[in-house]
Design brief:
Elements: H1 2-11, H2 15-33, H3 38-53, H4 57-74, H5 80-95, H6 99-117, H7 122-137, H8 141-179
Length: about 180
């Protein structure tokens, strides 16, 4: 419950109180679970997010790297914490002007996201879009166009899949009503 309180404090803009609360949760969880546990990685992730939101990029980069290292030990390799941690790390590198490193990290993020969510998930589409924007900012216009095309194709495919599944359920409901 305290973890959720920390997240709520952050949501309401009380970032320092949120960080303090989550740090207390982290200490408590470490005393219960030890240093390497899924609950520890989740709490560290929340702390890193708040650090990022506060503009403490050096701290958040360090904390996200801790999350990634720990998650490799205690979580499945395609867990969403990997996806989101890698995405934040790529954003930090991009903000620092290290676009080549950011691109490599976004590509790793994309590979994990595909395994975690599938091709047509909005998280995957957002990552592809981030890759395209980064390539565009680097002047890699051909690569950017291809990535934007890939993102657009994913969006269209998602819409088609959603429409088809909704149509199918509507058709099924109609058929069931007719059969009655």
């Amino acid at each position: 419950a305290r973890h959720q309180i920390g997240l709520l404090l952050s949501l309401f803009g009380q970032k320092e109180d949120a960080t303090r609360t989550l740090s207390e949760v982290l200490a408590l969880r470490k005393s219960v679970y030890g240093d390497d546990h899924a609950e520890i990685s989740k709490t560290l992730f929340s702390i890193a997010q708040i650090q990022f939101e506060r503009g403490l990029h050096n701290q958040s980069l360090s904390t996200f790297n801790q999350v990634i290292q720990m998650a490799r030990k205690v979580l499945p390799p395609n867990h969403m914490i990997f996806v989101f941690s890698l995405s934040y790390v790529a954003q930090i590198y991009r903000a620092r002007g290290h676009t080549a490193e950011a691109l490599i990290i976004y590509e790793k993020c994309y590979a994990v996201a595909i395994k975690a969510f599938g091709h047509n998930h909005y998280v995957v589409i957002n990552i592809v879009n981030s890759i395209a924007q980064l390539q565009l900012s680097r002047g890699d216009y051909g690569q950017a166009a291809a990535a934007f095309g890939r993102a657009s194709g994913l969006v269209v495919q998602t819409i088609v899949n959603t429409s088809s599944s909704n149509q199918g359920s509507v058709i099924t409901r109609c058929q069931n009503k007719v059969a009655k």
